[in-house]
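User: My advisor asked me to double-check a structure prediction for ATP-grasp domain-containing protein before group meeting. I don't want to rely on an old file, so could you generate it fresh from this sequence?
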Amino acid sequence: MTTKTINLVEALAHERDHGVLIWLFNIGAEQVWHPSPRKGGMVDRDEQQVVNRMEEMNLLLCRSQDVIVLREYPDEAFLDMLQRLGFSLPRIEVPEPSDPLTPISELVLADEALLARLRTVADAGHSSSGAKAWLVPYAVTPQEEAIAELCGLELIGAPSAVSAQVNDKIFSRLTAQKLGFAVSEGAVCTDESAIRRECARLADLSDGPVKLIIKQPHGASGQGMYMLDELSKLDTLLSVMRRFGGSSPSSGGWLVERWHNKQMDLNYQLCIDEGGGVTMFSLKRQNVDGTVYIGSQVPAEIGDALEEEVRRCAYQLGTYLYSIGYTGMASIDGFVDEEGLLVPVIEINGRFTLSTYISFLSSVLGEQHKTLSRYYRNVTATPLTYSRLCGLLAEEGLLYTPERPEGVFVYTAGTLSGIPVKRGYVNRIFTLILADSWQEADAYAHKLEGIIAGLGCS
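Assistant: Sure, here is a fresh prediction for ATP-grasp domain-containing protein from the sequence you gave:
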C-alpha cells in the first residue's frame, strides 16, 4: 500500500490532530535490503541490544492519538519527563513475546493479537467518522509492507525495492553526477585492481599527504568505510576489506574517493509526497567523528546564499527521486569542502535517520533555542538509570526543565543499559543541549562531558 492524503511534515509540525500515525523503529533495515552473511555473524550482541532501544527517540515525534510499537515499555521517569516538557504520549504497544535482539518487525508479525489491535485502528479509519491511520516505519522493507497489508494500513514510504535501490552509496554518487552536482574526486571500482589504480591516481593528484576513503555501497553508522592515509597500507586494508566486507562484485563494487578537510558537514531532510511535492526541512550542521555521526547543530546558520543553494539542490534531488518512484522521508548528507565548494550529496538515506527524530523539537519546545545534539557511548561499572543521570545533571544545574528551559535534555532512557554484560553496563547517552547562545550551549556541553567522564566510563 502507498501513502495518500497526508503530508507528514505538516502532520508533525502544524496539523497535529490529523490522522493516526503508527510508528515503528525498525533500525537495521540495511541487513534486510542487502543481507551480508559475514556481517550477520559479527554482530556485537551487547551493543545491538542498546542500539535497538534507540527506538525511544521516536517518542519525540508522536502525537497523543498515535500508536507506537516498542520492544519494551519505557522507563516511567523518562515518560514523565516527556510529559513535563510538553511532548504528547501515544498509545504504546509491546509485542508478545518480545526480546532485545529480534528485529522489531519480526516480533510484530509473530504477534497475532497485536496485529489484530492494529487492524482495529485501521478499520476505525475506514469509517466515515474515524481517523485514517498510516504506518510510519523507520525504513520500508518487505516486512513492513507485510504488516501494512495484514493490518489494512496505508504505508508511508516508497516500495521496499525502490528503498533498497536508493540506500546505496554508489547510487548516491551516480545520482549526484547525473544531476550535475559537485562530487568528491574518485570513482566506482568493481574489483581490487580498480581500487589499486584509483588509489594510485588520487595519490598522484595530491599536493600533500594522501588521505582517501574506500566505501562499501551498503551500511550505516560508518560501517563499511575504510580510511587510507598511506599507499603502503593498501595491501593490509584490502585484506581487512576481504575479511569483513565481502567480495566487491557481490556487494556491487566499492567507492574510492578523496577525503576532504571540510569546512562543515551538513544534513537536510526531504519529504516527497505522492504528487511529487518536495519539502526540504531541518537543515543541520553535523558533528562527525571521522565517518560516524555524533551530533548536530540547529539552526545551521550557514548564510543565506549557501542555504539557498542547498535548497535548490534538495528540490532537484527530490524531484529526481520521485521520478524513479521514491516517496516519503529521505535524509541527505553533504558537506562544504576546504575551498568553500558545496558537495550537496554524499549519501542519500532513503529512510529516517537519527537526525530525523530531532527535526520537530520546535513544535514542542519553541524556536528560540540554539540547540546542540550530543551522543556519547560508554561502559559503566554500575547501572546508569535515567533518574540517576537526570539527578546528576540537576545537581550541577544542567538539567533542562519546564521551570528552567535551558540546559541538557536526555532524550532516551532505554539506551541506558540496566543489563550487565561482559564489559560492564553498555550505555548510549543521547542529549540535547538548549541555550540562548552558542557560547552558553558550548559551556553546557563542556560541563556535560565532565559529568560523563565522572561516571567512570570507558
